[in-house]
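Quick question, first post here. What does this chain look like in 3D?
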Amino acid sequence: MATCRSLLFVFLVACAGAPAAVRGAAEPLVRGRHTIPLTTVTFSGHRYVADVDLGLAKPVPLMIHGNAGVFLTLTHEAAEKLTGGPVKKVEDYGYSGKGRGLITVAAMRVGDSTFADLRDIPVFDYSDSAGAPVQGMLGVRFLLANDAAVDFSRDVLVLGVTRAGNPNKALLLNGYRVTPLRMNGRDRPTIDVWFACLNSALPITPSTVAEALTLHHPFFAGRIPMTRAPSPDRSPRGTTPEVFLADSVRFRVEGVSFVCPASFGDIAEYGAVRETDLESAGYLGFDWMKEHAAVIDYANRNLYFKP
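> Answer (accepted):
Ran it through. Tokens below.
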């Protein structure tokens, strides 16, 4: 599939002669109390992983998950090292026969921040085999609680970003556009994205995982050419929604036009919820964020991106 690219790219070439002070800055454009390097792994698409200290012999790789309304989750492999034995199954959930359990994490250190006595931490697997490159996640509740920003231009997680009343001026002077994040009741942020095939806008979640664009199939069926993928998806609740693919979807964010490949699935079926309960129609994923050097600023509820 073609790489997602802004339609304004050709016009930006004319700006190559901009002053050096605007094109690049010696200091980071997004500052906070502590900056944590992130590693990109390929695991059902691309994902950022941070090494987190749980008091074990080695750090635990946790993905930064921008559309998961949780604080922390762990796999059974990581949880069993903490508890010294199997975790009691409380429901069928995940991608192994161990299902989902709950544990208390005595202490977790992320960068310069320590969290103690974390109770009812969900435990479930993304795979039925050991040694996965991801052993859990830090979700939206963690990112909000710690005034975090995910900076795709530098591959870092910034904690303790200063709250401000106005958008980040340094980013705007360096060619970024900004759009506000809206928080819904399930701790999943959304932005307004206008789709040409619908001639209307939908709420879309800025994500830190997966490919460029994932959309709710029923909203787009019959509106855009797409083909059925060879095999369906499989959700952690055991549902198997069909997957469809499109080479080209046209959309706008804050008036900036983009053309991007997309995948489509029934997000309600995937999450085992009613369609009327959906608060987001899809996700702008890791690949789009990376290409546009995005910064998701959870402290100030803004998404910055370069056209």
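The first strand starts at residue 5 and ends at 6.
The mean pLDDT is 90.
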